[in-house]
Amino acid sequence: MSHIFYEITLVLVLATVLGMIAQRLKQPTILGYLATGLIVGPLGLLRLDNTEVLDAMAQLGIAFLLFLVGLEMNLSELKHVGRDVILIGAGQVVFTTLVGLAIAFGLGYGPLTALYVAIALTFSSTIIVVKLLSEKKALETLYGKITVGVLLVQDFIALGVLILLSGLRTAGEITLATIPWGELGLTFGKGTLFLVGALALGRWLVPPLFRFVGRSQEVLFLVSLSWGLGLAALVAHPAIGLTVEIGSFLAGLSLAKSIENHQIAGRVKSLRDFFIVMFFIVLGSKIILSHASAILAPTILLSLFVLIGNPVIVMLIMGALGYKSRTSFMTGVTVAQISEFSLIVVTLGNRIGHIGEEAVAMVTAVGIVTITLSSYLILYSDGLYRRFGRLFKVFEFRKGAAEDGRETHALRGHIVLIGCHRMGHNILRSIEELGKEFSVIDFNPLIIERLQRRGIKAVYGDAADPEIRERAAVQEARLVISTIPSLADSERLLAEIRAANPSAKIIVTAEDEAGAVRLYEAGADYVLLPHFIGGLQLARTIQEDSSLESLKRLKEQDLAVIMNQP
Predict the structure, then answer these.
(1) 438 vs 293, which has greater pLDDT?
(2) Looking at 38-42, 142-146, 256-260, 546-550, which range is the least confident one?
(3) Does 539 reside within a domain?
(4) Residue 204 DSSP symbol
(5) 77, 84, 133, 28: which is closest to 314 by C-alpha?
(6) pLDDT tens, position by position, 235-272
(7) Taken in order 418, 419, 423, 424, is the CA torsion positive or negative?
(8) Is residue 11 in some structural domain?
(9) Would the pTM of this model clear 0.85, i.e. be above it?
(10) Minimal CA–CA distance to 449: which of 409, 471, 420?
(11) Positive/negative CA dihedral, 120, 123, 124, 127
(12) What's CA 252's distance to the chain center, in Å?
């Protein structure tokens, strides 16, 4: 057992170092993990005796990754992303697949291998693209919203691909004459049935169950893990015949519309990040360097297609729909890489016996090249367009007609209220009376549900989580008000908000005078002391109403607040 412990520790330390180097070079850490796998595997610089343990951890990584993909995919959003986004996403998938098939056939691959390669070229990395757009503060721009919508469409199509692969369990090359159509139909029937079942669970069973457990972070975390892994194991049971990947995806999808989904995602991401490291290490370790000369030319050709062909396909579609060349270009460069999904697909194909190690190594190499170069393309896309924008005017077929009158609205210069219970409820009422834009963060799912029914931007989760703060646009707020009474939490929150948004005014809460002094020293613009406020309000009431008739009104207001709290 200790030997396994030391091996895993050594691999993690190496992955950490190489991941930090990749990050320093403004690259996704995925590249560092793949490099770790190369060192562990084909280069032979570090030999491991317990590779089966890493394989099991890699399988968990895939499960958690797809669980989160499903969790963050709200199918109802397909109704809101618009016809154009669906056409762009679906059109890109179709044309990339067709051109990819032609290139793969031209390289001499058989029909089934060519299909896997073409599919692998189709999907773009949601994790990498959203992270880079977030760093650029571009998620709320028009092209940012179109990109996220296109990625959503890709993920939906990817679910169908996974179901398709589940129905092609026969090893070896398959032709049109030998496709098991009956088995494929049965598999799609099962997949559709479980998809409908997952959506039904998400609508009727999940809300009351997770509302019940949502008050405790620990219980919510454990229930979420049990739900995800349990449903994955059920779907992958031989009696059902689907895969762990589909089960994990459907488990996340069933929770996508829950109020708690952001908080669940925040807690599960750390597990995903740990285990997915193992997936990329294992993937890198299985690259066979003896294939290097054989895959060099295909890797270069297919990488050029992904880096240039995919953006051109998107720009052609968007130009035909009437978008301006800048929007088309900025959206196009975001799809100039293949995704983790692509690597999962070819890994699954190899496990089934459809494709060989050489094809897996080639697609992995394309992933390394395209992820590396596209990261720079996305980060510096504004400068690239300023320099070469005139060249892309040829893709502006309708003079930007699709963008006439379209404006994107993002929360900026608004108020963020953290904690909407008791005192926060009264503050919320005052903010509403001011008519100012605002958002709310709270850890009570019943409060969030009630606010969302009123059309208020309300986020369930812990304000200490950076992602929760990002969803409430704390980094763009003019004023942040926290009613959290804990001094330690307030100090940490104050420091993190100040670092992310130096210009914001920040109001925090303290339970006593000593705490208020510490928070002022930490940089708070104002500190709420509930007993001060209560005393001042009572004094003002006595001064302004000598008959004290207003006490009855205050009593009724306070009782209404108390009785309405969950």
Answers:
(1) 438
(2) 546-550
(3) yes
(4) I
(5) 84
(6) 888 888 788 888 888 888 888 878 888 788 888 888 88
(7) positive
(8) no
(9) no
(10) 420
(11) negative
(12) 12
CATH number at residue 200: 1.20.1530.20
Answer yes or no: are the C-beta atoms of 138 and 144 closer than 8 Å.
yes
**Based on the domain organization, do 352 and 437 belong to the same domain?**
no
Helix or strand (DSSP H, E) at 539: helix 530-544
Between CA 478 and CA 39 the distance in angstroms is 49
Measured at the alpha carbon of residue 95, what is the angle toward residues 141 and 90, in degrees to the nearest 5?
Answer: 50
Spatial strand order in the sheet of 458-460:
458-460, 438-442, 415-418, 479-482, 505-509, 526-528
State the Cα–Cα distance between residues 407 and 182, nearest whole angstrom. Answer: 49
Residue 57: inside a domain, yes or no? no
**H or E stretch at 17:** helix 2-24
In angstroms, the first-to-last Cα distance of the chain is 49
**Same-domain check for residues 341 and 285:** yes
386: three-class secondary structure by DSSP: helix
| Residue 175, φ and ψ in degrees, nearest 5 | -115, 175
Q: Is 528 helix (H, G, I), strand (E, B) or coil?
A: strand
385 in a structural domain: yes
What is the H or E stretch that residue 53 is in?
A: helix 51-71
Residue carrying the six token digits 């757009």: 133
* CATH number of the domain to which 526 belongs: 3.40.50.720
Across 492-524, b (16+ Cβ under 10 Å) vs e yields ebbeebbeebeebebbbbbeeeebbebbeebeb
CB neighbours (10 Å) of residue 67? 31
Same domain, 152 and 281: yes
**Tokens encoding 461:** 């989760």
Of residues 362, 360, 327, 326, the one with CA closest to residue 344: 360
Q: What single DSSP character describes residue 187?
A: H
* Under 8 Å between Cβ of 524 and 510: no
pLDDT tens-digit map of 460-470? 877 877 778 88
Instruction: Kindly report the number of other CB atoms within 10 A of residue 205's CB atom.
Output: 11
| The one-letter amino acid at 549 | E
| DSSP structural state of residue 14 | H
Counting the structural domains of the chain, the total is 2
Which of the 8 DSSP states describes residue 186?
H
* CB contact at 8 A, 278 and 52: no
* Residue reference for tokens 């969950």: 566
What residue type is 392 in one-letter code?
F
Residues 391 and 420 in one domain: no
DSSP 201: I
Question: What's the one-letter identity of residue 439?
Answer: S
Q: What percent of the chain has pLDDT over 70?
A: 83
List, for residues 492-505, the tens digit of each pLDDT value. 889 988 888 888 88
Please indicate, yes or no, whether residues 327 and 190 belong to a single structural domain of this protein: yes
Range of the domain at 436: 415-564
Helix/strand/coil (H/E/C) assignment for every residue in 290-314: HHHHHHHHHHHHHHHHHHHHHHHHH
Provide φ and ψ at 105, rounded to 5°: -65, -40
